[in-house]
Amino acid sequence: MDLDLDVPVWAWVGLGAVIVVMLAIDLLAHRGAHVIKFKEAAIWSAVWVAIALVFGGIVFWAYGAEAGTAYTTAWLLEKSLSVDNLFVFALIFGYFKVPREYQHRVLFFGVFGALLFRGIFLGAGVAIVERFTAILFVFGAILLWSAWKMVKGDDDDVDPSTNIGVRLLKRVLPLKDEYHGQKFFIKEAGKRYGTPLLAVVAAIEAADLIFAVDSVPAVLAVSDEAFIVYSSNAFAILGLRSLFFLLSGLLERFHLLSKALAFILAFIGVKLFFQAGHEVIDPAIPHVPTWLSLAVIVVSLTLAIVLSLRRPAPEGTDGEGTDGESTDGQSTDGGSTDGRSTDGGSTGAGTAAVGSTDGQVAGEPTGSRGLDDAPAAGEGSGTRR
């Protein structure tokens, strides 16, 4: 935790350049709308992991084992927490009936915004911890509360129709119900409108802001060195899109991951209490070493994956699939149950089904609910799954 790296300006510039170049390459590689298949997602996932590990090797070489271990732990922690976010992304795509060929474009801009906002939050978090160490007690309590909610399943019901990002967007821009290719804006009769694709980006960004409530305190438990916490978060977030497509359709098989993530959050929360106690109450209170945090994360995720595959979840438990499929018959993979598509949204008129919270009845016309049906501001917003 007490790393004090002398990171030169050129290193920050180099990190920014790597991020921008990789984003540009990714955007060019996916400039045409197409469905991301498993093989393509696997290749890109391997690329992002390789880049993250190479950067970690550079940190090891330049700043030593302690800094390298902190980076690796923070990256793996953020990577594991992001898996839980994928369930929410699937739910948002399903609710808005986003065609599969447009989903990468949405996630690209979602990731771009996440990099920006996460940098702001992490910078603020580092500054606060440096000036007011006792805030670590608050961060620890947030993580323990999040872990408890995850175990109880209190925030499984994420309702995209109450997403604050969509509600705020509707206040400043009229929105159309029909998709217009990959466009975010269209003009009709001289008036500018937003498309449902823009609404989905707003929903993804708002969801990431909520995810940051867990992610920022968690990574600050590993290190308060700005270069470590931002670079680890950035490389984890960059690989989020390919990870989504890689695990699409497989998320329900890893039904124990949420329990593992809850345990990891609880462990990191306790680590923060020890950390704060050491610095605020008594230096005799021990630190939890970073290598132990890394070991706990690796072992927890490995056990969850292995046990999930060996002991599949009973089908139809409580009438709800673990991949976010709602009991009203609407798939969260992006399609309705009216026979058109189950994994990428409507293949017909391309109309977003956005509005009421009671779902779409099988066989209901795709355009029967519009963006204007979404609740007004002040009715609440979705939370981390």
Automatic annotation (TrEMBL):
Q: Where is this region: Disordered?
A: 314-385
> Ranges of Acidic residues compositional bias?
317-326
Transmembrane portions of the chain: 12-29, 41-63, 75-94, 106-128, 134-151, 197-221, 227-248, 260-278, 290-309
Compositional bias (Low complexity) spans?
327-339, 349-359
Q: Which GO terms describe its cellular component?
A: membrane
Q: Predominant location of this chain? A: membrane
* Keyword hit for Transmembrane: yes
Q: Give its localization.
A: Membrane
* UniProt entry keywords in alphabetical sequence: Membrane, Transmembrane, Transmembrane helix
Membrane topology designation: Multi-pass membrane protein
Sorted alphabetically, which NCBIfam families does this protein's record hold? R_switched_Alx
Which protein family is it in?
Belongs to the TerC family.
Protein known as: Tellurite resistance protein TerC
Organism from which the protein derives: Kineococcus aurantiacus
